[in-house]
């Protein structure tokens, strides 16, 4: 059961010597091997991980661990630069690319002794909401193999049939979400531009935190939309997310978009009295396409707060429905710019075409990018044409301000936290998901998460219940800028109330037969 | 309003990425249609928002050299190099005109 504990619990176990960093690392690596069918990892850095674990063990032996993260196995989405370890962004453009430096967030984790197990799978260049469009294939949601899902399936499946109607993880940080959900690591880094951390968190039943824009450094995170990207945190419980946040947040001289405010890591209090809280329920989030199950869950959650004494009010964010259109224009425009760096000259794939510089660039990009990426680049360039610039790009920037102002007004009216669904429904089966193209899917799936990126606000997915199909459904809390402590405190309270069940995976049970039998708890809180 | 072949060709030149097939062009058409919804919003008197951090001063540091001397690392990932240069094919040669290209757009 050691692998199924929370990060904080296993950290205590390391400190008390009940398990060693190398044992922990080996167990995780073994589990990664036996859950290979999930395709959550693109690269497993076995040698370096074991080395890091050994060094951690030395520190524990000397009684000098670096902190709570020392020896903790973690995974990182493959769009973060990692020195000496391949960084691909799940694209042919960067296959074989070995970065000369670590992203700031990766460096911070390593400096605190964390053990980097590997790089996780994603949609190519983080464009997508399914983690299905990368060159290494789609990621499978671990819940596809859970007893909870299989029990509800008709016809009853053979437990050995790995291809049985498996469901997607959501995206684009699907690999990271799957890795945390299947217990192969205790925390993972994702990225969030339109919901890419919260969406897979909801589908995989894990906590997904999108911090305030400017709180965590983007240095080394291969950029998609510079004005919206943030590193995301995926963990099994809210307390663990607070730990990660504490080690990652803060000004970085290498990222001029990080704020200079002094950030103080915090421990979350155990909130007992919610009577001073005002929870806002934005009515526009009751959108067509929202499943009746999730609507009911959302309602139940609102009642939970009400019955506990909190003030629960309906609020309005009138420009919500334009958020996705606005995002579409701003995202493609920024992508058109950001993807211009991939020309084959300095790094990454290079075509054999030698006729001219331009033809080499064009051929390299044709060979290196998938349809989704190319489509966004072309759309972005269209919106940036001189004749379209005001009509589309500047217009979208104006609409962005309206969306951001909606939130300002609501928070100014006394609301502390907003409560919304995270996704429209539980995870779709892969065969169903791929019937629609990437852009349509993204437009549908990002609808509830995107506005928080538009406004730069912190938001978190908390796993809340299982759907009728036995799959996780999460709810989202959105907070005020830089008020992560309040956001996480409320999220932690809610997590405790809902007691989300632990996934029952046969693979993990087989690996976890160890002496430490004490954990029979059904959840992490 | 379909996008003209001239504009499509122009986009391919700007983006250095090709539409590849009719699906690619359809994708753009749909993207434009989708984006047109923006015009339903009244933005009179609204300033464009470039960054959510617009109320803060951008961080500036002292103009001191704190890192560098990493030529070797930077060259390592390049496929074609000579001494300390990245090597590119000859420049100043424009891409072939639409009529000369044996690609999809020719047929539209």
Automatic annotation (TrEMBL), chain A:
<keyword id="KW-0436">Ligase</keyword>
<dbReference type="InterPro" id="IPR036928">
    <property type="entry name" value="AS_sf"/>
</dbReference>
<dbReference type="Pfam" id="PF01425">
    <property type="entry name" value="Amidase"/>
</dbReference>
<dbReference type="GO" id="GO:0005739">
    <property type="term" value="C:mitochondrion"/>
</dbReference>
<keyword id="KW-0067">ATP-binding</keyword>
<keyword id="KW-0808">Transferase</keyword>
<keyword id="KW-0496">Mitochondrion</keyword>
<dbReference type="GO" id="GO:0050567">
    <property type="term" value="F:glutaminyl-tRNA synthase (glutamine-hydrolyzing) activity"/>
</dbReference>
<dbReference type="GO" id="GO:0070681">
    <property type="term" value="P:glutaminyl-tRNAGln biosynthesis via transamidation"/>
</dbReference>
<dbReference type="GO" id="GO:0032543">
    <property type="term" value="P:mitochondrial translation"/>
</dbReference>
<dbReference type="InterPro" id="IPR004412">
    <property type="entry name" value="GatA"/>
</dbReference>
<dbReference type="GO" id="GO:0016740">
    <property type="term" value="F:transferase activity"/>
</dbReference>
<dbReference type="GO" id="GO:0030956">
    <property type="term" value="C:glutamyl-tRNA(Gln) amidotransferase complex"/>
</dbReference>
<keyword id="KW-0648">Protein biosynthesis</keyword>
<dbReference type="GO" id="GO:0005524">
    <property type="term" value="F:ATP binding"/>
</dbReference>
<dbReference type="InterPro" id="IPR023631">
    <property type="entry name" value="Amidase_dom"/>
</dbReference>
<feature type="domain" description="Amidase">
    <location>
        <begin position="27"/>
        <end position="488"/>
    </location>
</feature>
<dbReference type="InterPro" id="IPR000120">
    <property type="entry name" value="Amidase"/>
</dbReference>
<keyword id="KW-0547">Nucleotide-binding</keyword>
<protein>
    <submittedName>
        <fullName>GATA amidotransferase</fullName>
    </submittedName>
</protein>
From TrEMBL, chain B:
<dbReference type="GO" id="GO:0006450">
    <property type="term" value="P:regulation of translational fidelity"/>
</dbReference>
<dbReference type="InterPro" id="IPR003837">
    <property type="entry name" value="GatC"/>
</dbReference>
<dbReference type="InterPro" id="IPR036113">
    <property type="entry name" value="Asp/Glu-ADT_sf_sub_c"/>
</dbReference>
<dbReference type="GO" id="GO:0032543">
    <property type="term" value="P:mitochondrial translation"/>
</dbReference>
<dbReference type="GO" id="GO:0005739">
    <property type="term" value="C:mitochondrion"/>
</dbReference>
<dbReference type="GO" id="GO:0070681">
    <property type="term" value="P:glutaminyl-tRNAGln biosynthesis via transamidation"/>
</dbReference>
<dbReference type="GO" id="GO:0016740">
    <property type="term" value="F:transferase activity"/>
</dbReference>
<protein>
    <submittedName>
        <fullName>GATC amidotransferase</fullName>
    </submittedName>
</protein>
<keyword id="KW-0808">Transferase</keyword>
<dbReference type="Pfam" id="PF02686">
    <property type="entry name" value="GatC"/>
</dbReference>
<dbReference type="GO" id="GO:0030956">
    <property type="term" value="C:glutamyl-tRNA(Gln) amidotransferase complex"/>
</dbReference>
